[in-house]
Design goal:
429 residues; globular
Amino acid sequence: MTLSLRYTAASDVGLLRKENQDSAYAGPHLIAVADGMGGHAHGEVASATTIATLAELDAEVPGSDLANALRGSIEQANNAIRAMVRADSSLEGMGTTLTALLYSNNRLCLAHIGDSRAYLLRDDVFSQVTKDHTLVQSMVDEGKLTREQAEVHPQRSLLLRALGTSGTVEPDVHVHEVRPGDRWLLCSDGLSSVVSEDTIRESVATCDDISVIARRLIDLANRGGGPDNITCVIADVVPDDANPDHPVIAGAASENRQTRRSPGDSAASRAAALSPPPDEPYLEEVPPRRRRRWWSFVWPVALFLVIVLLGVGGWQWAMNQYFIGASDGNVAVFRGLSQPVGPLHVSRVERRTRIPLTNLPPYERDRVNNTIEVDGRSDAYAAVDRLGHEATACAAQRHKTGPTPTPTPRGTATPAPQPSSSSGTSGGC
C-alpha cells in the first residue's frame, strides 16, 4: 500500500514573549519545528534559516538515503547560521533547536537536536520518540535526578546541543517504521514544558481534525500561562492522496519571508521565498555628475565618517563588556555597560537564565540587583553557574522547612557552559 502524509502546522507567540522565534514547516515529504534562541541575538533568524534550508528536501525528495539527506541539510543550516554570526558579532549566541521528519516511499527518517520534541500516537499508545539534549535530561540519564525533579529544576532549559552554537553539529538521526494510522506530533517546548504529556495525549487522540488539535494544544499552553512561543506540527500517515495540500509555513519563517514571486507553485519556490533576495544588478548606468566645486561637500562627508567610525568603535567596545544583573525577576547576563552614558543605556540582555532572584541568598540577590561586574563572557557564565548552584541549594533548604516554591516559567532556551559539580552558598537563604 502506498501511503502519504496529511499535515498541518500552527504557531503562536504565547502570552509573555514579544516576538515569535519558533519556525515550522509541513509539506508532503517534510515536517519540521525549529525553536530559535538568543533573544536580541535574533533567534528567529536562526530558526527561519534552518527551516528554509530543510524545505528544499520537500521539493527535491532524496532517493533511498533519507538519513544522509537530512544530515547534509542540517549541516548546511548550521554552516549558514555560523556564517551570519561571523559576519556580525552582535548575533553571537544565535541558535535553534530542530526536530524534523522526512518521508518518502513508505520510509520515514527523524532527525533531532535540542529540546523540541517528537511524539507518536500508534494504536492508541502515545509515546515520546525524541530525547531532550538538556542538562537535566543528562542528569536524569545518570540517575542524579528523577523525572519529576527535572520538570521543576531551575536549569531545566539549558541545552547541551543546538544548531548554530558550534562548528560541528550532532543530531540524533533514526529511521522509523511507517504504519497506516500513525499520528506524529512535533512541537517546541513552549507546549511540552507547560502542558502535561497525559493532556497532550488526550488532545491528540480524541479528534480526527488535526488542525483543530493544533489549535487546541496552543490554547492549552496559553491557559497554562503561555510563557514561551508555542508551535505544533501534526502529520497523519494515510492512504496515498493524489492531490496533497500545499505546504504550510508557520511562525518566524512565515513572518520574515520576502514577498517576492518565484516561477510556479512548487515547494522549491516557496522555500526560496523564505530567504532574502539576492542583490539586484543595476540595469542602467547613471551618468556621473559634474565635479564642479567638489570640495564644498568633502569636509562634511569626512567629518560624518569620522563620527560614524568613532560611534561604531565605541559601540563595539561596549558590546565586549559583560555584567550580571536582573531581568524579569531572573538572573541575566548583559552585554554592554552597567552604568548609563548620559541619558543612554548602552547594554542589552544576552541571556536571561531560569534562576529566580527569589531563590538566591539575600546577599547575592542584592549583588545581582546592583549588577555584578565581570571580566568577560566566560567569567559571566562562570558567575551564572555559581549563582545557579546557590539558588538550587537555597531552594532545597527552603523545601525542607516550607512549601516548594512555584517554578518560574521557562525563559529563552540558550546554550551555556555546563555547571560545575559543586558550589557553596553565600550567606543564609
